[in-house]
């Protein structure tokens, strides 16, 4: 229920211990006026400063969070490739020359079933908190403040964090029933964060200390999954379902040993999710911060559920894209379908009371 600090070298909501709930919003900018866009970023920053402290946005606040604590609310902003160069090639805000090289649309991956209306966006806000009422209040008031400047393109709500981002947190389970986040990069891994998560001096100057955000809405085919015996499920993931231990080991945090054998075969199968995504085979790492979702049931009465995958990395290409390419032969792919995709550059943190989201960019 405590408030998370809003200012700092990096934006809150990345290595902040993952909260229980997510409300993610992607926006399209509907004005061509650079001044209106800058005005909105000023207004959003002021509102975010108050909201994350558990305060109302001002006299026009919608009121439903009155009396509720800050609930660990973080608001993290990101800029999509189309903010710099619109889909039709226009440079609406004079930003085209400032687009960081790595901020490009993700390549297509085999098996993608992306819905364009649920993908992309000029801007995004990742809102996380421990109370869904606090979340909807924050999102609703930011949308209200954006009227005439931005339009909501798509949103995704999530519950039950599917990652730990701090070693002080217990590892949660995803909807497959497996512990998720065991081998994640965590707040305490300072050097690995500098290497894999925070944008360095080799990228655009306004983005140094920021990070690239990749989101993928991954539908899980849970009815298929539930028909698979536990031993086979474990072979798909590469870890034990109850303890979360790597196959061939005993405890959750035992190191993965890809040389361990069982019945003359590798204990961790070569097409398992953990084998293919592990840094020793994927050649890289990222910070995962995803959430489970259940968007009701589909027309066939199947749970419209899955994992809203969120990853932070210092470059989309050497982070998500590299791992996702390596996952082309993942045994897990039989049970998943990617239905939405987006990429954003998240600027560094707001330094002080006069600073605002994206100041160094404009
Ligand atoms: C590890 C589940 C999609 C990257 C894991 C683990 C589970 C899991 C249970 C093992 C525990 C852990 O270390 O966190 C899932 C599910 C997915 C999914 C259910 C889809 C519905 C992805 C995607 C990527 C990814 C799309 C990246 C492209 C990773 C990485 C690890 C991991 C990097 C850590 C591997 C290691 O270092 O041992 N995932 N995952 N996952 N996953 Fe996923």
TrEMBL record:
Requisite cofactors: heme b
The keyword Metal-binding is annotated on this UniProt entry: yes
Enzyme class: oxidoreductase
Keywords associated with the record: Heme, Iron, Lyase, Metal-binding, Oxidoreductase, Peroxidase, Signal
Ranges for domain Dyp-type peroxidase C-terminal: 171-350
Ranges where the Dyp-type peroxidase N-terminal domain occurs: 11-159
Cofactor note: Binds 1 heme b (iron(II)-protoporphyrin IX) group non-covalently per subunit.
EC number: 1.11.1.-
One GO MF term: peroxidase activity
Recorded catalytic activity of this chain's protein: heme b + 2 H(+) = protoporphyrin IX + Fe(2+)
A GO CC term attached to the entry: cytosol
Subcellular location: Cell envelope
GO BP: iron import into cell
The UniProt record lists the keyword Lyase: yes
Function: Involved in the recovery of exogenous heme iron. Extracts iron from heme while preserving the protoporphyrin ring intact.
Family stated for the protein in its record: Belongs to the DyP-type peroxidase family.
UniProt-recorded name of the protein: Deferrochelatase
Record organism: Geodermatophilus aquaeductus
């Amino acid at each position: 229920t405590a408030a998370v600090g809003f200012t700092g070298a990096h934006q809150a909501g990345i290595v902040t211990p993952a909260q229980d709930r997510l409300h993610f919003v992607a926006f399209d900018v509907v004005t061509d006026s650079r001044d209106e866009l800058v005005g909105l970023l000023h207004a959003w920053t002021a509102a975010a400063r108050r909201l994350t402290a558990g305060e109302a946005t001002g006299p026009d606040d919608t009121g439903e969070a009155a009396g509720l604590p800050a609930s660990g609310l973080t608001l993290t902003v990101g800029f999509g490739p189309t903010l710099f160069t619109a889909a039709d090639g226009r440079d609406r805000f004079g930003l085209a020359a400032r687009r960081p090289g790595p901020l490009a649309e993700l390549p297509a991956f085999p098996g993608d079933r992306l819905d364009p209306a649920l993908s992309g966006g000029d801007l995004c806000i990742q809102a996380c908190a421990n109370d869904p009422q606090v979340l909807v209040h924050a999102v609703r008031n930011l949308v209200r403040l954006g009227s005439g400047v931005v339009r909501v393109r798509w949103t995704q709500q999530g519950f039950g964090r599917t990652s730990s981002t701090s070693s002080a947190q217990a590892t949660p389970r995803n909807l497959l029933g497996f512990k998720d986040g065991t081998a994640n990069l965590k707040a305490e891994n300072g050097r690995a964060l500098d290497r894999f998560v925070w944008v360095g001096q080799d990228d655009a100057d306004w983005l140094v200390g920021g990070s690239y955000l990749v989101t993928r809405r991954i539908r899980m085919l849970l009815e298929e999954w539930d028909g698979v015996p536990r031993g086979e499920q474990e072979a798909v993931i590469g870890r034990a379902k109850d303890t979360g231990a790597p196959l061939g080991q005993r405890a959750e945090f035992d190191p993965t040993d890809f040389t361990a054998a069982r019945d003359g075969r590798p204990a961790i199968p070569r097409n398992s999710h953990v084998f293919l995504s592990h840094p020793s085979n994927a050649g890289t790492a990222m910070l995962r911060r995803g959430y489970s979702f259940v968007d009701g049931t589909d027309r066939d009465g199947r749970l419209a559920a899955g994992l809203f995958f969120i990853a932070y990395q210092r470059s989309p290409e050497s982070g998500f894209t590299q791992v996702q390419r390596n996952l082309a032969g993942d045994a897990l792919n039989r049970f998943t379908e990617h239905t939405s995709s987006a990429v954003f550059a998240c600027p560094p943190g707001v330094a002080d009371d006069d600073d605002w989201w994206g100041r160094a960019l404009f």
